[in-house]
Amino acid sequence: MNNHATEASWPPPRSQWLQYWSAAPAEQAETLAAEIAEHCEVSDVTLPQNGLGLLKLPDSALNDLYFLGEVPVSHAHVEVVAPDGTRSEGGARLLDDRQSLARALAVLDATLADRLPKHEQALDLLNTGRAAVQQTRAERNAILATTRVDFSLLGDGSEDDDE
Amino acid sequence: MGYVAIKGGEKAIDGAAEALEALRAGGPVSGSEPLSLNAIEHQLRLLTSRIMSEGGLYHPQLAALAIKQMQGDTLEAGFALRAYRSTKPRLLETPPQDTGNMRLIRRISSAFRDIPGGQMLGPTHDYALRLMRFELAEESPEPFRKMASTFLKNAPEESLPDSFPKVLDALRSERLLPPKAEHRNPAFDITRDPLIFPVSRSAALATMARAETGSMLAIAYSNMRGYGDIHPTVAELRVGYLPVMLPHPVTGELTEAGEVLMTECEVIAMYEPDDTESARGAAPEFTLGYGACFGHNETKAISMAILDRALQKGMRDGPENPSEDPEFVLMHIDGVDSMGFANHYKMPHYVTFQSDMDRLRSTREKYQARGETPQEETHES
């Protein structure tokens, strides 16, 4: 989950698609999904929903399970049928209120999974999202790198302030 | 005495709402601009964090809206967020998420200098002078907007991993800590089930995770000051983004659905011979406390970790101090509960107070009928 796809592994595995598409501009994803729907038949396997999910964690001290709180969740599961009759199922579960976005990403998921028409654009959007993820990663990396403590300087002299 | 209908209440209440909005705009001559949610979310990020954790819902935009709507009242903003969440359907419960995968922006330990991966201070006020920065009063937009890009440009080029090992794992490998539980009980849902004492640790952790920061700090502080026995060392305090993994609707494979900013803290407390397994013949070990919350809120996470350790002792041996009493702690740290109770005293109590006055008059009449003269309270000027 923390292993971002490298150039060599492009396109990334399906399990990373939603992470990248979610980082791309939402309107681009919804526009592309609408364009796909013009060429293909899109139907809902389950109705798109939005609501909440309980976030469950094991506490890292003693390993007891507890709920930290709730997160917004939207969910979509669609079937896309291409003009040549190829059928593909796609789905999305996002920490986001927008079920329209979840449905759009589910359409992209189905399109890319079986290389349906316009899957190239879905791949391009994946690349856009990956760049956004990498930018965010670089920003966090910068925070860590800038604030890393160098204790070796303290150890050189006799002024250690260890307790 | 019965209830008395009055005229004009609704009009006054409508007027109060309008007055509130007028003051939010700063009055007729303020010329202030409405706050954008984006500005609140980022420039008041610690406040937004607090509202999310106390509201029990990770939703930065709605937390920012609640802050705006409630004009900065943290208790009311948390209340609004909880009210919102109560209107939404529950779609799922996530699989257990591993906080070892947090993408960190801050990581410190007061137990060891050299922790695997190193210590990174991240964004913190810890080392800043608490002196007013008057230049912020007249901040120019241009340099403000460039701040982030300048920071990035000047940052040292160093490739760091996304996640880091836990400090506790090193101690655990030396068998200085209690082992992790192998069999875990189901997590307790405080949003659906009432707290009936004795409660599980899972219920206590969930209650504290959405408790009011100041309330938790106050009770934890009582323990630190002497009404308790914890002398904690922060094994690790970390702030970062937890990737939330949910099953893909088609493949079932765990897929990242988004990420959640959170703060997590583990404290180590000194063992005591009669306070650990050593009393039962096992080797003495350190004891642990755990705290976590949505957003970046270190005071809350540390307070929670201290209270968790105190409550473990109270649950096991019986409470010797208020901070070790699960009922005392867990029933008094919820901001919505306590704020609601305190503020309900502002509501009309005309009938009950009339009854109080009647009883006082009646008692006085009985005194007089018995020939006793109640001693009048004297007031010195």
Descriptive overview:
The complex is a heterodimer of chains A (163) and B (381). Chain A has 163 residues and is of the alpha+beta class. Chain A has one domain. Chain A contains 5 helices and 3 strands, in the order ααβββααα. In chain A, β1 (41-58) and β2 form a beta hairpin. In chain A, α1 (17-23) packs across α4 and α3 (99-113) packs across α4. Chain A is globular. Residues 1-5 of chain A have low confidence and may be disordered. With 381 residues, chain B is of the alpha+beta class. Among the domains of chain B are: 34-91; 99-124 and 158-339, no CATH class. Chain B is 40% helix and 13% strand. Chain B is built from 13 helices and 5 strands. Chain B has helices spanning 9-24, 37-43, 45-55, 60-69, 74-85, 141-154, 167-173, 201-209, 213-225, 298-317, 326-330, 335-344, 350-369, and strands spanning 90-93, 103-108, 233-247, 254-269, 287-294. In chain B, α2 (37-43) packs across α4 (60-69), α4 (60-69) packs across α5 and α9 (213-225) crosses α10 (298-317). The mean pLDDT of chain B is 91. The interface between A and B is large, with 66 and 98 residues. β1 (41-58) of chain A pairs parallel with β1 (90-93) of chain B, so a sheet runs across the interface. Chain A: This is Alpha-D-ribose 1-methylphosphonate 5-triphosphate synthase subunit PhnG. Chain A: It comes from Marinobacter persicus. Chain A: InterPro entries: Phosphonate_metab_PhnG (IPR009609).
